[in-house]
Amino acid sequence: MSDLKKQPLQAVKGMNDILPPESARWEWLEAKMRSVLQRYGYQNVRTPIVEPTALFVRGIGEVTDIVEKEMYAFEDRADKHGQAEHLALRPEMTAGVVRAMTEHSFLRDSGRRLYYFGPMFRREKPQKGRYRQFHQMGVEALGFAGPDVDAEVILMGSRLLRELGLLDGEHFRLELNCLGAPDERRAHREALVAYLEQHKAMLDEDSQRRMYSNPLRVLDTKNPALQDMANGAPKLLDFLGEASLAHFNGVRAILDAAGVKYTINPRLVRGLDYYNLTVFEWITDKLGSQGTVCGGGRYDGLIEQLGGKPAPAVGFGMGIERMLLLLEEVGVAPDAPVPDAYAIVPSASGLPQVMVALEGLRAEGVTVVMHPGQSSMKSQFKKADASGARVALIFGDDELARGEVGLKPLRNEGEAQSLRKLAEVASWAHELRNA
Ligand code: ATP
Ligand code: MG
């Protein structure tokens, strides 16, 4: 027992620590994403990680992989009346955003353009690019029916990928499809089920199970033996009426004008039940079967399905881990952040004065790391070098007594040390920031 207690604890399988220097890449990517999102007038939204299980069952659909197999759902402790709530870790955030908008009557007067970042949870088999806690950046534009906003969210994704240098090569393809309206899907469904019945003998277990519950998802099969069958199946595109086609063509006309390249994939259905009309995915073939980096589409029925006043909506979710894997794969890396300066403090007696001086530098926007504790000058200079800082600030006792600090460039060997007046920080701080 006591031995067991001493064993170091480990993180849950498929749930990762994000540590420096890797965490700096996350911050870099998130900042890039935020900058793009804000340029389109999208606003940040943060909803709880835990929601009532019913939200996802109703929102995502009962016969989806997520709800059937992947959701972390549990019963909370009973309250004093013996009632326990059924709760789940969110597997995606669209349902939570819709709940929040309805709960706070945020769609009463106008539409909303929102974005979020955060962890999502799915009990999948952990592998490269597939984790049990993973992170998404997503956008939701709620209350807008026209193809202009479908095109806007696609353009936004496209701008982000372009600014990251990911649209220059052949890293990505954008696949597009139109899932039409419920009655069109019903007509297509009948034809599809009839077709699947003809091929029943060859279907795998998953497809047999989905054939009646969610036949559209059979077209989504990754089973190589079923590709020809799926390609030959009746296409939803052939069942679309005038209004759906006009919407689809509206989206395409904007993408064409903006020079956004895409391919139409009639088999693209996406894993969640709530989509209609436009659906899309950005796919790379550099990450194997974890190649879908971003997926989204229109979900005009979801708000009403979750008890809100009917309103149209469109959005997408982008996997942060997969984006980072791809950026690494293609060699796009941010410069590792380094401090402007490293403070060397030879003796403890001057610490109050030193730390006040460092506050003065930080107030001027300088990034300065202080050597913690006391050690030899030699080891402090070593640490200063290792930090990547451009200059060392030397707070020697003599200098301090004169109200001065020594400044030694670390990058350009041989450059002489100079002295600065602590009382005149503002006059030389900018030099450190831009060193
Ligand atoms: P996949 O087909 O790869 O399972 P999905 O269709 O289930 O993806 P969505 O629900 O659309 O994915 O989520 C949007 C994005 O979130 C995906 O495109 C992907 O980048 C990312 N993602 C989804 N599941 C995981 C996971 N388990 N681990 C890491 N990233 C994930
Ligand atoms: Mg999935």
From TrEMBL:
UniProt keyword terms in alphabetical order: Aminoacyl-tRNA synthetase, ATP-binding, Cytoplasm, Ligase, Nucleotide-binding, Protein biosynthesis
Molecular functions per Gene Ontology: histidine-tRNA ligase activity
Compartment annotation: Cytoplasm
Pfam family of the protein (one): HGTP_anticodon
UniProt record similarity statement: Belongs to the class-II aminoacyl-tRNA synthetase family.
Recorded catalytic activity of this chain's protein: tRNA(His) + L-histidine + ATP = L-histidyl-tRNA(His) + AMP + diphosphate + H(+)
The protein's Enzyme Commission number: 6.1.1.21
Quaternary state and interactors: Homodimer.
SUPFAM superfamilies, per database record: Class II aaRS ABD-related, Class II aaRS and biotin synthetases
HAMAP family assigned to the protein according to its UniProt record, in alphabetical order: His_tRNA_synth (MF_00127)
UniProt keyword Transport, yes or no: no
Aminoacyl-transfer RNA synthetases class-II family profile domain boundaries: 29-346
Coiled-coil regions listed: none
Protein name: Histidine--tRNA ligase
